[in-house]
Structures are given as structure tokens and as C-alpha cells.
Amino acid sequence: MADAVQWIARRRVTLGFACGAIAGWLARPTRGSLLAGFVVAAIGEALRIWAAGHLEKGREVTMTGPYRFTRHPLYLGSTIMGVGLAIAAHSVIVAALVLGYLAVTLAAAIGREEEHLTEKFGAAYPAYRDGFARGDARRFSLRRAATNREYRALIGFCVAFALLALRLR
User: Fold this and answer.
1) How many domains does the chain have?
2) Which of 10, 74, 77, 138 is most solvent-facing, going by the fewest CB within 10 Å?
3) What is the pLDDT of residues 59-106, one digit of tens each?
4) pLDDT given at position 1
5) What secondary structure letter does DSSP report for 60?
């Protein structure tokens, strides 16, 4: 079971492209669904940008910005984006595919990531996870978001909605 979880966690992006292709093929967006889905997905991407602008990946347990409120704001943002894409696609089958993909892959990724953070940072991560640690104040940095390659999610967001717009009925 642990091997399967690791396999899923490592291949979640590749699996996402495959699910995205299927979702695009099955999508039947309308102008209303595309607009509503865009707004929801944009909120998710904004959360991801905010999180990436605070994240010092591999250096510390980040506790500022959205990390004050949730341990996994990048995954929460991705989930909100997925819901937005499902709304935009205007398809129950696509919604089930997106939600199934997110449930399986993000659960695997979160478990793997929490193990890694505990190994790397010792007691600091469990203390943060359990609500006993607070980080130093840090301002949001667009440069930090770019260093964390958040532009890739933003490009994916734009491409996905452009492709859905081409499928308008």
C-alpha cells in the first residue's frame, strides 16, 4: 500500500495531464459555467500565489501567510482550482473525475510530504501541525512565488480555460 501511495504522489502531475485531457474531451462548457468556473478557479490560483510567495521550500517549516490558517494552502488552492474547472466544464462526469483525482493524488502527496517534513525538520513540523508553533512575520514576495515556480500553475490555469473556451457550446 505504501508503494502505491508513493507511486501516486510522484506521478500526480502526469496523472493530472491525463485526467485533464479526458476532462477536456468530456467538457461541455456554457458561457455561464465558464465564467463561474473561472471565478472559482481564479480564487484557487490566487491562494496558490499567496502561498508560494511565503514558502521557503526546503529551508524551513513555513508558518506565515496562508500557512497560518492551513498546513497545505498550495493543495487547497489546487482543490479550489479543480472545483472551478469542474464547474466550467459543465459535466457531472468531469466533476467526478476531477474530485476523484484530487482526493486520491492530494491525499497521497500530503501524507508523503508530512513524512518528509518531519524527517527533515524534526519536532518543528509536528509542533506546527499541532498548532503549537508560530513563525516569524514575513512579507509576501512575488519573486519568491516565481522562485517556487508558481508561474507553471498560472500558465496551466490559462491554458485550461483557453481550451475550455474553445469548447463553448
Assistant:
1) 1
2) 10
3) 999 999 999 999 999 999 999 999 999 999 999 999 999 999 999 999
4) 66
5) S
pLDDT tens digits, 144-161: 999 999 999 999 999 999
For helices 12-26 and 92-121, what crossing angle results, to 10°? 170
Q: The cell 513540523 sits on which residue?
A: 125
Which residue's C-alpha cell is 513563525?
135
Site of grid cell 508560530: 134
Among 168, 1, 131, 148, smallest CA distance to 77 is for 148
Q: Which amino acid is residue 19, in one-letter code? A: C
Chain centroid, CA 11 distance in Å: 14
CA distances from 166 to 27, 31, 54, 102, 153 (A): 11, 11, 35, 25, 20
Domain hosting 57: range is: 2-166
For the whole model, what pTM was predicted? 0.92
Q: Scan for cell 502531475, then name that residue.
A: 13
Cell 468556473 belongs to which residue? 37
Q: How many CB atoms lie within 10 A of CB 131?
A: 8
Euclidean distance between CA atoms 106 and 68, whole angstroms? 20
